[in-house]
Amino acid sequence: MPEQNAPARVVVVGDALIDELRDSEASREFAGGAALNVAVGLAVLGLPTALIAMVGDDAHGAVIRAFLEKYGVQLIATAGPLGSSRAVSDRADGEPRYFFNDAAKARRIEFGVAERAALAAAELVVVSCFPFDDTAQTEAFASCVSDPERRLVIDPNPRAGMLHDGPRFVRNFEALAARSLLVKVGEEDADLLYDSTLDELRERLVDAGAQNVLATAGRLGASVAFAISGLVSVPIATLDGPIIDTMGAGDATLAASVCTIVNDGVPQDSAAWQALLVDAMLTAAATCRHEGALLRRP
Questions:
Q1: Which pLDDT band holds residue 292 (cuts at 50, 70, 90)?
Q2: Which residues, 6 or more positions from 32, have their beta carbon under 8 angstroms from its beta carbon?
Q3: pLDDT value at 24 more than 80
Q4: pLDDT, mean of residues 39-50
Q5: If DSSP codes are grouped into helix, strand and coil, which group holds residue 266?
Q6: 91 pLDDT above the threshold of 80
Q7: Predicted local confidence at residue 93, as pLDDT
Q8: Bridge-partner residues for 197, per DSSP?
Q9: pLDDT attached to residue 28
Q10: In this structure, are residues 81 and 54 in contact, taking their beta carbons and an 8 Å threshold?
């Protein structure tokens, strides 16, 4: 993990919340949220990281702050007027279903002096589970990120329980994706936002101008469509031990991919993209062999 006060090389923007996992036997709580998972994952991988998110001044917020401090992630917090966000999840056919509190549904991030300074200084900016259906927030964020073609990584990561306007979300997301370095999308994004296949969504984003599109397909592995008309696919990684929990697999994939880009630069050919994907799939497989969304390495 990075030193506590090291300058952030990556700034992650998005959600931080309490995940309550329920099953027939018990209920357990974790600090979570897609952006928080990515930020902590990057810190586990050794990159100094900051998280810009809404966190309430309440007991749940204290848990989130302590968790981030434990892993050396700097938090730049917007106050939560309705408290901290919370998601309750159960399982349907093995996949998590989420139910969100009012704070999560009304989430908002302010971009003031501290936020702008952190975003300006970062080598890469990663945005995940951001309210792209709020045009004012989207424009405020976009105005803070110079050279997005070199520095911006986007995972739309919509959640049905927090989505207010699907068509507006798509418009704002795609406008920013067309100017980004890397876009990550998954099967749930294709289904919820586009009612399309993942392959169709990947090609749509490429046609719209996205330089590099990382598509994660669960049991079918992952692929990258990259700038020079290339496509590379890899299967999921096979590791010893059973799969315990798929929560956080996509976030681990994104964190591992961003870490490779920060340390080694943007891949320039098929072999380099394949190496990035193989490492990301190993990280996701290791994460799935533990409960919760904390990134693990094989």
A1: confident
A2: 16, 17, 18, 19, 87, 247, 292, 293
A3: no
A4: 98
A5: coil
A6: no
A7: 61
A8: none
A9: 84
A10: no
The CA-based angle 109-115-119, given to 5 degrees, is: 115
- In sequence order, what are the beta bridge partners of 62? none
pLDDT in tens, 210-220: 999 999 999 99
Tell whether pTM > 0.85.
yes
Strand pairing report for 213-216 and 182-186: parallel
Distance CA 238, CA 288 (A): 11
Q: Reduce the DSSP state of residue 185 to 3 states and report it.
A: strand
Q: Which two tokens stand for residue 284?
A: 């996701």
- Give the neighbor-by-neighbor strand order of the sheet with 95-100: 27-32, 17-22, 85-92, 95-100
Amino acid at 100: F
CA distance 284 to 71: 19
Sign of CA dihedral 61, 10, 257, 147: positive
- Under 8 Å between Cβ of 257 and 280: yes
Tell me the mean pLDDT in the region 250-271.
Answer: 97
- Asked if 88 and 116 count as a contact pair (C-beta separation under 8 A), the reply is no
Percent above pLDDT 70 for the chain? 97
In 3D, which of 43, 99, 97, 98 has the Cα closest to residue 72? 43
Cα–Cα distance, 49 to 232 (Å, whole number): 28
HSE-up of residue 74 (Cα within 13 Å, Cβ side): 20
Residue type (1 letter), 97:
R
* CA 227 – CA 220 distance, rounded (Å): 23
Token couple for 57: 């001044």
Residues 6+ apart with CB under 8 A from 119: 11, 13, 52, 111, 125, 144, 145
Identify the CA nearest to 250 among candidates 167, 128, 149, 147. 128
* Positive or negative torsion for Cα 77, 82, 83, 86: negative
293 or 168: which carries more pLDDT confidence?
168
